[in-house]
Amino acid sequence: MTPGEIRRLYFIIRTFLSYGLDELIPKIRITLPLRVWRRMLFWMPNRHKHQPLGERLRLALQELGPVWIKFGQMLSTRRDLFPPQIADQLALLQDRVAPFDGALAQKQIEKAMGDIPVESWFDDFDVQPLASASIAQVHTAKLKENGKEVVIKVIRPDILPVIKADMKLIYRLARWVPRLLPDGRRLRPLEVVREYEKTLIDELNLLREAANAIQLRRNFENSPMLYVPEVFSDYCSQNMLVMERIYGIPVSDIETLEKQGTNMKLLAERGVQVFFTQVFRDSFFHADMHPGNIFVSYEHPENPKYIGIDCGIVGSLNKEDKRYLAENFIAFFNRDYRKVAELHVDSGWVPADTNVEEFEFAIRTVCEPIFEKPLAEISFGHVLLNLFNTARRFNMEVQPQLVLLQKTLLYVEGVGRQLYPQLDLWKTAKPFLESWLKDQVGLPALARALKEKAPFWIEKMPEIPELIYDTLRQGKHLQLSIDKIARVMEANPARQGQSRYLFGVGSVLMLSGTLLLINRPEWGMHPAWLMAGGLVVWFIGWRKGR
């Protein structure tokens, strides 16, 4: 490890211990070395004993920076895994991270606009941030040209070196995983870390986020399920994003949503529908759907609509992965474990030589007890976890392209259960997936393919006669070449026979000449002429055999 990595690792350990997070280590036999090692670091005491554990965990992650804050945001959606006192504190990481100086944010905005005072472009600019998160913070203003209310998002200063330092350390740890764990190579830790790094670096480019938001807004234009605010791209740059200000209820504010009479069941189901629509219809999904990025419109609580912001992280799947994923989901819904096993083999997610019968039996053994419960009580995250643990025994490799999807699905389920604990994720998703698969393989798919290819075929239509003529001419030349090769092959045995005969004659002449030269030296040059004749006959035989 480099000195910089050692310093960063020391800082991480010191931060965790100074906030007393060693309390999270379970007191079981396997963790004994960790607990002994902690006692050896007696000079790093818990300096925040007066604060509850949840608050200490939040403050520690916040102090460590954006990589760790993102991790905390993900954990905050899993209220089924953590008690409320921890989950509530982690939820604050979604939009209430300690802000940086608003005057510094104003300087960044002016620099992004060409060193022009902020008053030249905006009215009512508020130096106090509206919200602050791990990567950026948001200020409110009005556009001077039309008076529209907007929010201005600016990247935190000097954040890139912190991210790079943490990622270098995580890469180092990822390289150790295959050495420390028996099946570490199967987990493909480097590929997963590389994918995570890419998403973090992409978030630092607000032009990318602007493009993502414009695309997502177009995909859900006039949709009753999701509204994406307008982006004012003329004002955007790599470090600044200007978009429409929205007013909505945070999706985590259950009390306010219920107070205004929101249809919570429909709201939870629409969250699932929005996710699957993005993944399977559009191949373009918002991959950072934690509660801090999701609001609910005040309008029409009986027919609620989501408002989505912060499109810095998006994901996509190729056609093959979408197809296999949809078929896997449906096979699970139908408890068709044979189909699940076959799909894993066909997709290449497990080795081709996997015993399908054994894999099917292993999946059945894990999933049948889970499905004995009512569907509404089954955690999709729990099913995925059990499936991956089972597939690990069959050398299933982690699929980096599915990591974002898995994380987002867990977000969606966590939010949905929070809104409506009786949410039946399976019942909501199954009709959508069945309809999508039918649309991909039926007559509508054929008609759509013909429609998409029609302009290409029309463009190539005038060239068809010439292509037919060239094909026929090439076919004639090909036939002549084949006939010539056939004749050569037919003549070849005769030529080979002549060659062998001449080699035999040449050998006899060479051998006779050599014997006469040794036994009858008085014959002078006559044996030498025999040997020369043998060489000539050999040469003729070699030419015949070529």
Any chance you could write out the topology, listing elements then pairs?
Layout: H1 3-18, H2 32-40, H3 53-64, H4 66-76, H5 84-91, H6 102-112, E1 122-123, E2 131-132, E3 136-143, E4 149-155, H7 160-180, H8 189-203, H9 206-219, E5 226-227, E6 240-244, E7 248-250, H10 254-259, H11 264-282, E8 285-286, E9 294-297, E10 306-308, E11 314-315, H12 319-333, H13 337-346, H14 356-371, H15 380-392, H16 400-419, H17 425-441, H18 443-460, H19 464-519, H20 526-545
Parallel strand pairs: 5-10
Antiparallel strand pairs: 1-3, 2-3, 3-4, 4-6, 7-9, 8-11, 9-10
Helix pairs in contact: 1-3, 1-7, 3-4, 3-5, 4-5, 7-8, 11-16, 11-17, 12-13, 12-17, 13-14, 14-15, 19-20
Approximate strand percentage = 5-15%
Count of discrete domains: 4
Report helical residue fraction. Answer: 55-70%
Query: Count the helices. How many?
Result: 20
Poorly predicted sequence stretches spanning 5 or more consecutive residues: none
The count of strands amounts to 11
Average predicted confidence as pLDDT:
78
Largest sheet: 5 strands, antiparallel
Structural class: alpha+beta
Radius of gyration: 36 Å
Termini separation comes to: 64 Å
Please state the overall shape, judged from the principal axes of the Cα atoms. Answer: elongated
